[in-house]
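Let's study a protein:

___
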Amino acid sequence: MNLDELNREELLALKSKIDEKLNRPTDFVINILKSENVSYVELSKRLEEVGISESNRNLSNKINLGKFTFEFVLQIADVLDKKIVAINKKKKD
């Protein structure tokens, strides 16, 4: 797909799909793991180092089913040395 060849409507539709994907907690966590090239086995090891015992199979199920808390996301961010930041929305005039 060549982005230069897309018209405005196609670009907006693509942006909407990307925004939708990144707003789902499961996709958010999976994208972090992929960007760091971290497998569930590696994540399990890193979590174990900070006292959180989760098997790689349990991590896979929990993440793919979206059955986790925000605290869990923060724990993953911590072991991957990532920072989660809240961004202020633009104020409407």
Observations:
- The chain has a mean pLDDT of 85.
